[in-house]
Design brief:
By secondary structure, this protein is α+β, with helices and mostly antiparallel strands. The protein has one domain: Ribosomal Protein L30, Chain: A, CATH 3.30.1390.20. Helix content is 28%, strand content 27%. The protein has 2 helices and 3 strands. It has a 3-stranded antiparallel sheet with strand order 2-1-3, with no helix packed on it. The chain is globular, with a radius of gyration of 11 Å.
Length: 64
């Protein structure tokens, strides 16, 4: 399964509560924090909800 790298680029201060919870659920804690997730429809949906606060890259050569 492919993986994606998600990086928080903006602060959650002053954002909607559900967007703050989504950022936390993705495992992000601060600006420029990066996490790697398996690429799934659930993760893609979470990213889509907060797409204005994150950057997404596909991880090349990831193996499990």
């Amino acid at each position: 399964m492919s993986q994606i790298k998600v990086t928080q680029t903006k602060s959650i201060i002053g954002r909607r509560a559900d967007h703050r919870r989504t950022i936390r659920a993705l495992g992000l804690h601060r600006i420029n924090h990066t996490v790697i997730h398996d690429d799934s429809p659930q993760i893609r949906g979470m990213i889509h909800q907060v797409r204005y606060m994150v950057e997404v890259e596909e991880v090349k050569g990831s193996k499990k």
